[in-house]
Amino acid sequence: MGMSLTVTPEPRDRMNKRLPMPFSTQLPEIIRNNYGKWVDRRFHGNGIIEHISETGDRVFTIKVGLPPNSRVSVDTLEKFIEIADKYGLGVVRATRGMNLEFITDSLDKALKIKEEVEKLGFPVGGWGASLWHITSCTAYLTCTTAVVDAPSITQVLYNHLKPFFTGEEKLPAKLMIFVAGCPNICGGTLAGDIVIVGHYGQAPRPDPEKIKFCLPASAEALKRAVPDVAAVCPVGAIKVFGKPDGSVGIEVDERKCIACSRCKNVCDYFDWDPAKIGVAVFVGGKTSNTGTGPRLPYKVIPWLPVNPPEYREIVAAVRKIIDVWRREAKPGERLGDFIDRIGIDEFMNRLGVPRTRHNRCEEISWNFGVRQFITYM
Prior knowledge:
With 377 residues, the chain is of the alpha+beta class. It has three domains: 100 residues, Alpha-Beta Plaits (2-Layer Sandwich), CATH 3.30.70; 175 residues, Sulfite Reductase Hemoprotein, domain 1; 67 residues, Alpha-Beta Plaits (2-Layer Sandwich). The chain has ten helices and 14 strands. The strands form four sheets. A five-stranded antiparallel beta sheet has the order 1-2-3-5-4, with helices on one face. α2 packs antiparallel against α3 and α4 runs parallel beside α7. It is globular, with a radius of gyration of 25 Å. The two termini are 25 Å apart. InterPro entries: 4Fe4S_Fe-S-bd (IPR017896), DsrB (IPR011808), NiRdtase/SiRdtase_haem-b_fer (IPR005117), Nit/Sulf_reduc_fer-like_dom_sf (IPR036136), NO2/SO3_Rdtase_4Fe4S_dom (IPR006067), NO2/SO3_Rdtase_4Fe4S_prot (IPR045169), NO2/SO3_Rdtase_4Fe4S_sf (IPR045854). It comes from Vulcanisaeta distributa (strain DSM 14429 / JCM 11212 / NBRC 100878 / IC-017).
């Protein structure tokens, strides 16, 4: 079925809530004219891709790394816009990986954009066998359920891993890192090559007085509904019950609790031991169909301490994971595929991570990608 392309609507028309939004009307003319006609591409160093159309037209995309959570000042945004207007096609694109992409129509202009953004202190890189991004949630900046400060962890990791983004240091394949401030995983996805997730490290303890604000006033109400603070628990670790005096009590079963903080999402009145707050590290996930297809990661490190501002324990763990993978992976082999080849037990041995009940990873076959499905058909 063909696709009809129309001109960009008037600004006032964009306020009409038309669904689905005709995104093609927002494309630069050269991209709109070549929609569906791109036949080839080539790389010009890390961070610049040339797209070639069957019509002979070419466009160049320049990927620029942004600060954690893509937070930049209005002044910086204005400078980006000036660069896009002067050397590009007057547009920029924010990516899922929290980078910024400029688009232009010649290699000379692409190199000029690279030069200008690097003058502003922003690196150009990604794509190919490199670090594509380190994606972060907002954490304490705007979130009420954050356990750790994901943006500052992300910044420290970028400080150490930037050469993998710019291509100064090589990787076997693409690498995507996600940092989430709590188990809600708003940092991006759990299916990443390396995923760092903040968690409390212990079961919550209800504040004996304030928790009453999250419970019904009388035990009689429990006959009609389960309070949200208990209903949200995914493992049934929170029990609410009627007391002899007619009030409502609450208990947390520490043997069942997985410290996911879902209860914290609906009620602020839980106490946690700050000394036990940390992060878990997952490895080997991906959403692409390369190799064995999409897969979830293994939890290899159940808890690491969080010690700002250097976060040395987290940096050391991530560097160790990357070093083992770099040293022994085949060209083009993603971290998860490398783990599949040598086995999760052997991978954890090479990391020097002991097995406990908290990271007892089981071997799983993820061989269900679209390519394999088509083969089976």
